[in-house]
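Weekly modeling sync, notes
Attendees: S.R. (lead), two postdocs, one rotation student

Agenda item 3: backlog of single-chain predictions. S.R. asked that every request posted to the team notebook include the full sequence so nobody has to chase files. The rotation student volunteered to paste the first one in as an example of the format we agreed on. Action items at the bottom.

Example entry:
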Amino acid sequence: MLDYNQPIDRARPEPPQQKTQAGFNVLELANLLWRRKIAIAAAALLGATLAVTIGKSLTPRYTATAQLYVDPRELQLVDRELTPRAQDVSGMSMVVESQARLITSNSVLLKVIQQAGLDKDPEFGGGDGRSLMSSLLGLIGLQPRAPSGADNKEVQLAALEALNRHITIRKTEKSFIVDIEVWSTDPAKAAMLANTLTSAYLAESRNSQASAARRATNDLSGRLKELRERLRS
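Predicted structure, as returned to the notebook:
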């Protein structure tokens, strides 16, 4: 039975709550690591193996750059002398673009392959595997088959394709400067190839200019002969 004369006790005591103790136990962590030591060692070994494999597969590339000035003027045969022919800006730009394409032409690249011996370089599809096979055949007393002309042609074409992938030609805007970039896994080889490619292009350009000069001389000689015959008549 309720006693209304007694005051209501509103502040009832709450049940005691258990407080969780948060802490860091070094011994438990050490025991956990010791129990998982095999898995941790295996993960570390796997990570080191992957790092070494990726590092070996990522071969460094060294790029050498050579710059060329391309003269866009062309020779024109006039009455008494050879003079540069006047051209507009678009015509000059086309001439520079054509010369930039000439740098990576087959005639120039084949000279580079011949001078640098890239057909024997493994980086450019050379024949290290062929020499190894020849050595193995020599150990068992068999003479390797001499390479035929078709084999040499295939090796040369492979070197030509590889060298073309190693070359980048960049034309500077609003100028007659052409940048020749050649990359290789060897920095000295990259510089050598850039210089050899520049020399081969200059030689090819001089040959083209000499051929143009010979044609102009022949045309001039023919005109002089024609005028001489007219004068004799």
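Discussion: group reviewed the output briefly. The two ends are 158 Å apart (CA to CA).
Action items: rotation student to repeat for the remaining queue; S.R. to check formatting next week.
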